[in-house]
Amino acid sequence: MFRKLFASSILLFCLSLSAFAQKTDTLSITLENIKYPYPVKYFPIHTEGQDIRMAYMDVAPAQNANGRTVVLFHGKNFGGYYWTNVIRALTGRGFRVIVPDQIGFGKSSKAYIHYSFHQMARWNKALLDTLGIQKANILGHSMGGMLATRFALMYPQNTEKLLLEDPIGLEDYRQFVPYATTEEQYKTELKATAESIKRYYQSSYFTAWKPEYDELVRIGAGVTYSADFPRYAKVAAMTFTMIYEQPVVYEFQNITVPTVLFIGKDDKTVVGKGLLSPEEQGAHGQYKFLGKQTAAKIPKAKLIEFDGCGHIPHLEVPTEFIVALLGGL
């Protein structure tokens, strides 16, 4: 009898620990419990019969304002929170820095709408108009690079420079990644766990893992404990479809603004990589080649490459990236 009571007590204790861990790790799908490095404001948007809002940081120059602005577009699995070191470096050099969380990401609304790079570009243009910014340097990382490219194509007169940090979309994924419906991708997104997210970040984003990267996993995984996670997963599936179905690779030659590419030579990112065989994975996402090929397509583009660096140079080789970025500006 004592053994049964002891075993039951241990089980209850373990369950309570599990519940406590889940409670402390749980994040809302709009990251209300994540403190961003600078104050967050919200830009109201009405679309498809819905009132939604886009979160953004508007950070003033720390000193010696130079009258120029840099806009930072985040990647698919991130929000404005991972730009902290870049914001600090830019504002320290006199730039005003605008950091939006795109609709569907970060602290912005997780809306059930048709996701489109064209629409996102228009929303960002409207935000800049509201802030009185007529011309800006647009820096886009990963998915943000696809958006930045679309923005520069749509609004060249408002783009001072286009800065692309390991942008995705350097290949047409439709040519070699099997098609998956949004519903099928939704079922895949629902399976995400803290463990699977860390494995993905380790294998896809960095050449060597550092303890400070665990915070990215904590944020990426925290939403999986939320009761609203199905909505988050559905939006993630919808934006996956947007990336897959809306390539920019055929329009690089149409870019008319000064462009700089920042490429981690060990980046091997492929959207939909899990749908490919190991052999197919090795044949694509080779940024040591894709960077050069893309720079050759963009008129007068400048290419800056980082050795021993994967998908996120501004985090993996921050000093080298900041020096290159400031030089590119």
From TrEMBL:
GO MF, any single term: monoacylglycerol lipase activity
Highest taxon above the source species: Bacteria
Annotated signal peptide: 1-21
Domain AB hydrolase-1: 69-316
Keyword set includes Oxidoreductase: no
Record InterPro entries: AB_hydrolase_1, AB_hydrolase_fold, AB_hydrolase_sf, Epox_hydrolase-like
Record's keyword terms, sorted: Signal
SUPFAM superfamilies membership: alpha/beta-Hydrolases
Pfam families registered for this protein in UniProt: Abhydrolase_1
Any one of the GO CC terms: membrane
Any one GO BP annotation for this protein: acylglycerol catabolic process
Protein name: Pimeloyl-ACP methyl ester carboxylesterase
Organism from which the protein derives: Pedobacter hartonius
Source lineage: Bacteria, Pseudomonadati, Bacteroidota, Sphingobacteriia, Sphingobacteriales
